[in-house]
Write a structure and sequence with these properties.
This protein is mostly beta strands. The chain has four domains: about 140 residues, Glucose Permease (Domain IIA) (Distorted Sandwich); about 160 residues, Immunoglobulin-like, CATH 2.60.40; about 120 residues, Chondroitinase Ac, Chain A, domain 3; about 80 residues, Immunoglobulin-like (Sandwich). The strands form ten sheets. Strands 1, 4, 6, 7, 8, 10, 11, 13, 14 and 23 form a ten-stranded antiparallel β-sheet that branches. Strands 17, 18, 19, 21, 22, 26 and 27 form a seven-stranded mixed β-sheet that branches. Strands 15, 16, 20, 24 and 25 form a five-stranded antiparallel β-sheet that branches.
Length: about 550
């Protein structure tokens, strides 16, 4: 088969694949889950921290409590109530093999809301994950199922909407189902980057290339590279007609008119969504808040249904001739942008000389210092890491170990690794029970209880940074904001939680000796007055018991009148 014929077959396959993806799903079966026009704040596959965005974020005009309706006939098969993540969510299973998900809700429809409330009081637990049979809560297309909100891991009022394969639970791009969302705007390209791939995409990292737009085509000057093995990354967004920065749906990379890489974001499972970190320039994303998507496959990136097999995007330059490069970006509606440039290999330079321990995709690795040990699985990294690990002293009065430096927070790991740290002084058995491991990854910290394994504390993390053992003998607490015995006329009680280290991992409130349902919103605990505490019911005693990550427990008592 000639090169031209091979190219033609691949091109036809790509086009057929894209068309089939859009026509292989029922069109116009699902309706808009809101009673206002669908406007996107985020689309399927948009880049998020450690995951792809797995549905559509639908605008609610910065309002809460808009009606959310079932997208089709079916039944409520599951609900979730959680502090982060989806907050309050409803899952509806449909007879055509799909399940729709509606998240960040304020309130379920009355009968369902009452059922959930009864279950919470029965279990004496606010967070819930309840499944239902087909006959319990049937719904029809367009029926009210909830009110929109801002609960869970939401940064503002909106509705998160997903469509899943009921059997596999894979999330499918909802835009493939024929929703009427006008879009005549092609993806916007703002940056092009090349990477020396002889050692790793992480070292030496991205090399920026100026991009210009002439008419309807993006261009860049001839790219002079000093490595014979390179790959590209693209910085681009899909604007649609609504102004928000959306993720790129489809990309192709061609050299000398030959397709060498392609991806489409049609479906992703929650088991695989963390592979996002192997599809982007993670250091740029974490350090510079810049979304650059690789137009190549990193060795440890195993995401299914994303890129075409045998097209890894790695360019091997065997000569010093000028080669044509074309990048094609498309949205679901077919709006297309093209970037055309040229590449030339100038000269070969020495490879990166590793100075630390080499961690490679597909290989497990154990690295030690005098008082620390890290164990990586074979799935830990997406590309080769020249891993630097060392110890330094810690001046924190609560520290009971050296700080162990785990390379850099700008390099991703895919799954949990095991970290062992030895304290730098002898601890009593009581003190051992109050030791936590703290990982600082720059933008935040993660604190876990860990467990003792011989003379070391063992903990699991899935990000890199600096780790230390802390002795936490402090008590968690909540503050009420009211004086004891005061008459409260507001519609709710709000308690603010405080800890020195870690988090409040257990919260229990009792009103006059009986469990009371407080919802958790970030660091606050909120009770909305109901029949459990009616007006005119006199003086009440509220007992609150909290436990922090270290296991320290505190009980506080507040009084008020209604």
């Amino acid at each position: 088969m000639t090169v031209f014929c091979k190219l033609l077959v691949i091109t036809l396959f790509i086009n057929a694949f894209t068309i089939k993806a859009q026509k292989n799903y029922p069109q116009n079966y699902f309706r808009n889950p809101l009673n206002i026009p669908m406007q996107l704040a985020a689309n399927f596959g948009a880049v998020r921290t450690n995951h792809f965005h797995m549905g559509l974020d639908l605008r609610t005009n910065s309002q809460e409590n808009l009606s959310v309706v079932s997208a089709a006939d079916g039944y409520v098969s599951r609900i979730k109530v959680e502090r982060y993540g989806f907050g309050n969510a409803v899952y509806i299973t449909h007879p055509n093999g799909y399940t729709t998900v509606y998240a960040h809700l304020n309130k379920y429809f009355d009968k369902l809301d009452e059922y959930v409330k009864e279950r919470q009081y029965k279990d004496e637990k606010w967070e819930q994950d309840i499944t239902f049979s087909a006959g319990q809560f049937p719904v029809t297309k367009g029926q009210l199922i909830a009110l929109s909100g801002n609960t869970g891991g939401s940064a503002g009022p909106h509705l998160h909407f997903e469509i899943r394969d009921t059997k596999t639970e894979d999330c499918i791009n909802p835009l493939l189902f024929g929703f009427n969302i006008p879009d005549q705007i092609a993806p916007i390209i703002s940056g092009l980057y090349w990477y020396d791939r002889r050692f790793s995409a992480y070292e030496p990292g991205a090399n920026g290339i100026a991009v210009k737009k002439a008419g309807g085509v993006y261009t860049a000057d001839v790219i002079q590279v000093d490595s014979p093995m390179v790959s590209f990354g693209i910085k681009a967004v899909d604007k649609a007609n609504q102004g928000f920065n959306l993720g790129i749906y489809h990309a192709e990379l061609l050299m000398d008119d030959r397709l060498i890489y392609s991806f489409s974001i049609d479906k992703v499972s929650y088991d695989d969504t963390r592979y996002l970190n192997g599809c982007i320039d993670y250091p740029k994303f974490i350090r510079d808040k810049m979304g650059i998507q690789h137009l190549s496959v990193l060795p440890g990136m195993k995401l299914k249904n994303y890129s075409l097999p045998d097209l890894n995007g790695i360019i091997n330059l065997q000569d010093e001739e000028v080669h044509n490069i074309e990048i094609v970006l498309k949205d679901v509606n077919g709006n297309t942008s093209r970037l055309k440039t040229k590449i030339r290999f100038n000269k070969k330079i020495d490879k990166v000389t590793p100075a630390g321990e080499i961690v490679m995709a597909g290989n497990g690795k154990t690295i030690t210092t005098q008082n620390g040990e890290i164990n990586f699985s074979k799935n830990a990294v997406y590309d080769t890491v020249n891993f630097q690990m060392y110890e330094k002293s810690n001046t924190n009065a609560d520290a009971v170990s050296n700080t162990v430096v785990l390379h850099s927070p700008y390099i991703p790991v895919h799954d949990d690794y095991t970290l062992k740290i030895k304290p730098n002084r002898k601890l009593t058995n009581e003190e051992k029970g109050k030791v936590v491991a703290l990982l600082d990854y720059g933008s935040d910290t993660n604190v876990v209880k860990g467990k003792w394994n011989g003379d070391r504390v063992e903990a699991e993390f899935n990000r890199l940074g600096t780790a230390v053992l802390l002795l936490d003998e402090s008590l968690p607490s909540v503050s009420s904001g009211w004086k004891d015995g005061v008459l409260i006329n507001s519609s709710s009680l709000r308690l603010k939680g405080t800890v020195k280290v870690g988090d409040i991992v257990s919260f229990r409130a009792e009103l006059d000796g009986k469990w009371l349902r407080f919802a958790r919103t970030k660091d606050d605990f909120v009770y909305i007055f109901d029949e459990k505490c009616p007006k005119g019911s006199g003086l009440h005693t509220l007992k609150v018991t909290t436990t922090n990550t270290a296991g320290n427990t505190n009980t506080q008592t507040f009084t008020f009148q209604r």
